[in-house]
Amino acid sequence: MRLDAFGEERDVTDTLLHVSISKAVDAALAEELSGNPAAADVLTEAEQVGFGQWTTGRDGAPLFRFAPFACTLLRRELERQHPEEVPGLRRRVAHWLVARGLPMHALQVAVDADDLELANRVVMRSWFALLQVHATAVRQLLSTVRMSRLREWPLLVTLLAVCLNAVGVRRLRGMQVFSAAIAAAHSHTRRVAGPERLLILTAESSALRVIGMRDRAGTVAAQAREVMESLDDGEREPYLDQLPLVWAQLGISLYYAGRSAEALECFAVGAALAESVNPGNGLSCLAMLGGIHALDGDLPEARRYVDLIRQGEWRGDVLDAHQGTFYRVAEAILAIEDGGRPPCP
Questions:
Q1: Which ranges constitute the DSSP H helices of 143-232?
Q2: Does a structural domain hold residue 10?
Q3: Residues of the domain holding 48
Q4: pLDDT in tens for each of the 345 residues of the chain?
Q5: Domain CATH number, residue 6
Q6: Secondary structure (DSSP) of 61-124
Q7: Distance CA 78, CA 92 (A)
Q8: In what order do the strands lie in the sheet with 24-25?
């Protein structure tokens, strides 16, 4: 590869170097990374000499993908000439990937660079997507990081533990990592504030619940709820999409700790919030509300939430997965009440 194919224009060369921090970019990201309003034109020139090519991204928008050899050589030169800029550029790429719905790619960028602070930020923004869609890849990736380093980041430890626990042959290891996660969470909660403290407490509560320490899980969930309610709008805003799922996890811990009234409040708040920001993330709350009311014998309330779920649009077979368990319980109880008749379509 010859950078002098572009002559002596330093701003053109610098554009290519800065943009090469990402294997693929759209025009807006290229401009942001390089600070050059004509970055897309530079990439079009680069395409002519084999540095990469413009393709179509999964959203239908133009996406420039660097040829592997070009990306490697350009990035090497970037790290030689501008080492102090690399961490900031990498963070921009990770945030772009998360915004495009590619959190696993963002986490890979962070871990490959040994930037666990960035990895923690990615997990904060995409915790549930990483768990629900990318659990196997997350387990494989985080297992490459030394546990002595991972313990410094309670969310990362807990994420790994959950992913390990989901695989039968690795469940014992998952329980061991859960113990490490609880210890890490306990040692960090007093040193962080705001949304991160909320997620750490939520993770700790979930870990305690999974290993059977239900009363302690409920106590920690109540602490997390206090943190949630203390956040101002500015602190909540970046994580609004995830908060219904956080409310669901807190409610589940409180329910299994025997604190049903508090749990129902959490599920109700989570369901209402999901309706305004992302209805798809409200299923867990709606399912728990329907199932708990059915088990408590409040069938009119159970039917109300079951009807909301029946009318919703849900991804794949999620109603038959873990999130839909209490919904199916409610359906079964209502079917018995209705004399075994199937639900209306």
A1: 147-150, 154-165, 171-188, 194-210, 214-230
A2: yes
A3: 1-81
A4: 455 555 455 678 899 999 999 999 999 999 999 999 999 999 999 999 889 999 988 878 899 999 999 999 999 999 999 999 999 999 999 999 999 989 999 999 999 889 999 999 999 888 888 887 888 899 999 999 998 888 888 888 888 887 876 555 455 666 677 777 667 666 665 466 688 888 888 888 887 887 788 999 999 999 999 999 999 999 888 888 889 999 999 999 999 999 999 999 999 999 999 999 989 899 999 999 999 999 999 999 999 999 999 998 887 788 888 888 999 999 999 999 887 655 554
A5: 1.10.10.10
A6: SEEEEE-HHHHHHHHHHHHHH-GGGHHHHHHHHHHHHHHTT-HHHHHHHHHHTT-HHHHHHHHH
A7: 16
A8: 24-25, 62-66, 52-56
Give the number of domains in the chain.
1
In a domain, 341, yes or no: no
Closest CA to 264 of 277, 251, 274: 251
Q: Please tell me the pTM assigned to this model.
A: 0.76
Q: Bridge-partner residues for 64, per DSSP?
A: 25, 54
Q: Is residue 21 part of a domain?
A: yes
- Amino acid (1-letter code) at residue 195: P
In a domain, 291, yes or no: no
- Give the containing element (helix H, strand E) for 310: helix 299-311
Separation between Cα atoms, residue 159 and residue 156, nearest integer Å: 5
